[in-house]
Write a structure and sequence with these properties.
Elements lengths: L6 E4 L3 E6 L2 E6 L19 H18 L11 E3 L2 E3 L1
Length: 84
Amino acid sequence: MFGEPLTYEKSWERVYCSYPDRYLKRSLAPSEYKTTKSGGVFVLFRNKKRLEDEVACVKDIREKTDIPVPEVLNVYKENGLFFV
């Protein structure tokens, strides 16, 4: 869709990819969840909801203040993942 990212980073809760003209952030798929030391799966609490709330906050700040924040170009869900 976007080609190869310039950078690709994965944290314990998100995947981040940068491209020449945009930045992509997405929730983790269940297969990407971290495991605990005892071998259990660390299930993220409200993973997609927190990302949806972040988008709403960025849009609200952008509309109501002069604080510089990035423009949200697109938000979508695909295969159970949430993309910004």
